[in-house]
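Subject: Sanity check before I submit

Could someone independently write out the structure tokens for this chain? I want to compare against mine line by line before I put it in a report. The sequence has 83 residues.
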Amino acid sequence: MFIDCHCHLDYFENIDSVIDKARKKKVLTIITNGINPKTNRKTLEMLKFKGVKAALGVYPAEGLKLTASEIDKEIKFIKKNRD
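---
Independent answer below. Compare away.
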């Protein structure tokens, strides 16, 4: 059994297929990562798949594209959704 501790499932169009392939290779847990407000929300949508966990955050290069207010708002969103 394996754990994929860092991936970006939101990069793929056919997520079902990606997860099926992972299961066949005995990957039972997949941690998918958000890097900005848009991908953090997509990452939370992935929780509908069994064995998928979410890691939310703001990648440094992505953070440079946000205002201080937007960063504060995203940190609040992450805190609200940390469970």
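---
OP: Matches mine. For the report I'm noting this point. Residues 54 and 65 are 22 Å apart (CA to CA).
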